[in-house]
Design a protein that fits this description.
Strand order of the largest sheet: 4-1-5-6-7
Largest sheet: 5 strands, mixed
Distance between the termini: 97 Å
Amino acid sequence: MKTPLLSRHGFTLIELLLVIGIIAILASIVIVAINPTKQLGDARNAQRRSDVNTILNAVYQYAIDHNGSLPTCIDTTRRGVCSSGSDCAGFDSGDETGVVVTDADDCNLDVLTGSYLVSIPMDAGGAPANSTSYAGYDIVRDANGRVTVYAPFAEQGATITVTR
């Protein structure tokens, strides 16, 4: 008599669990290597760098068209830039130096919208929770007439400023 050959159809439970475990370990290694939180923070910081340059370029284009005069709210006091169409109300926040910036310290740059900007850029991370109009950027002119735009909410310890 011949004994029938045993044939296997499919995988055992242990084989399936081993494969699933190996895939889970490899996936966790890949996720740690990619680090999506850092990647997203870097992307928001890149947008902030672009926005800071955009605001500063618009300010200087305005100055060129107005015989060197800057928008009136840009002076030697560091001010928060307000979004277009706002009355700059509702912004009481601290900048990265811990100085509390109030409504009186806002800079409404509506004069730049239309000819120089489509709209005031908003911070890539969103406006602070206690603000309805703050764009997330600050602006100041030093004693030598150079204008600096700051992104005080930069992530991962980055400092984003542009001075011209």
